[in-house]
Amino acid sequence: xxxxxxxxxxxxxxxxxxxxxxxxxxxxxxxxxxxxxxxxxxxxxxxxxxxxxxxxxxxxxxxxxxxxxxxxxxxxxxxxxxxxxxxxxxxxxxxxxxxxxxxxxxxxxxxxxxxxxxxxxxxxxxxxxxxxxxxxxxxxxxxxxxxxxxxxxxxxxxxxxxxxxxxxxxxxxxxxxxxxxxxxxxxxxxxxxxxxxxxxxxxxxxxxxxxxxxxxxxxxxxxxxxxxxxxxxxxxxxxxxxxxxxxxxxxxxxxxxxxx
Amino acid sequence: xxxxxxxxxxxxxxxxxxxxxxxxxxxxxxxxxxxxxxxxxxxxxxxxxxxxxxxxxxxxxxxxxxxxxxxxxxxxxxxxxxxxxxxxxxxxxxxxxxxxxxxxxxxxxxxxxxxxxxxxxxxxxxxxxxxxxxxxxxxxxxxxxxxxxxxxxxxxxxxxxxxxxxxxxxxxxxxxxxxxxxxxxxxxxxxxxxxxxxxxxxxxxxxxxxxxxxxxxxxxxxxxxxxxxxxxxxxxxxxxxxxxxxxxxxxxxxxxxxxxxxxxxxxxxxxxxxxxxxxxxxxxxxxxxxxxxxxxxxxxxxxxxxxxx
Lengths: 260, 309
Ligand SMILES: Nc1ncnc2c1ncn2[C@@H]1O[C@H](COP(=O)(O)OP(=O)(O)OP(=O)(O)O)[C@@H](O)[C@H]1O
Ligand SMILES: [Mg+2]
Hints:
With 260 residues, chain A is of the alpha/beta class. Chain A is 37% helix and 25% strand.
């Protein structure tokens, strides 16, 4: 078990956003987290990164309790995140944004060797997102929404995390790109052995990709099982997979565009 | 005032030299205001006092190293001033600002003013209210132009101030744009949560920004001590307001803005003093502050589109 969330309660002021969420992620797996808007999916990711502080419960990463650690320590222990809203640094160039992603590398080599290594890793990531390569010198804020999304994912990958948290990576991307993102996630998982916790509105594709899945409703986990089990589940079909098993038209589920 | 018909060019040249010298110093101090504002969206009103402390360290240092060769003494004083004010800058942030981060907007402002009063009085008590003279250290200079008996001169000290300022500004620019720390610092300016989510220690980055600003102010303090030959515990206020004006004029939060703003304020002050009246030269800076705040609060290089705290 690389990640274990035990009975977490998180609040925004008086609003209770997580009411006793428990969740487990096995090393090497892709775990999908689905749920309606406002269910608390992003809050869960932010809680396990220490940005939102849990009032009760514990987050165990790699056998260690990280619940009270400062965010940067949590990140440096091997977690990377492409958060909701992308949060690209608008005044840093694409290259600088990527370099920021390399900061939390677990073998932070300094000086020339470190720079060379980062450049090498960056090459690998740019293979996946060639559009970014053409834009390395451009300021992050001038990228299109979809390009920013690619940059956010690429940036998260650069620290070569053990656990990668992706909050709606397909948001705002064109259908072709969505498919590519899901392929990329599988590749990262298979070739690097990176564990992935994936929050998605694109429930069908996410569950097909995932080994396990969790369904959240208003701050609680109401269902969990393997990806296939959840896909076959009638409640899930009714609530999250419009028209049941048929291939979702990708365009439809992505109207929510939150360009920053 | 030796302003005569025949020496128009030489006289103008002299004001230009004086203005650039002053402007260098204001620019160095202004950088601290702008960097701290950039990262925490707050004016550090105790920054002028840090500069004043730098100046006092210079007085003490030059007395201490009286027997040492000049270049070495200057170097030692700069190091000493850097260490002392760097420490003050760090402490200031820890004691007065960090505990108040995230509380209501006026709280850190009040803390800043409190710290400023505290530092002034502390130095006054420790050093006495007397104006401290410093014997001139770097003497001599070059004559640029002589017209009708008026000689426009640039002293070696002025050259020294200008060179040191240019060197520091180049180093700072390199640090901000060419190093990992600078990148982290800019990232914190733009989105602290995301910076933390990438493994940046945001608190330490903020501390280091205070320290960097304090060091630049310290160097300015040392240079001014040499330039004017006197210091008192009140110089921080006036220089602080002028440098703050420079930062606002250049566009608060912008580093090139602080440099250019400093230069402009220095030139305006020198020309004002040279052509109108020395008595009213401080009013010039204050008037500019008011005018800029009314008509172009984002300054010359300001980025009004960036959301700050
Ligand atoms: N900063 C905040 N302050 C107050 N309430 C918040 C804040 N952020 C989230 N909430 C509330 O917490 C609840 C959970 O929000 P969260 O963003 O985690 O949902 P989500 O599952 O990620 O939704 P979506 O699919 O729309 O992204 C919502 O009711 C939301 O209104
Ligand atoms: Mg969300």
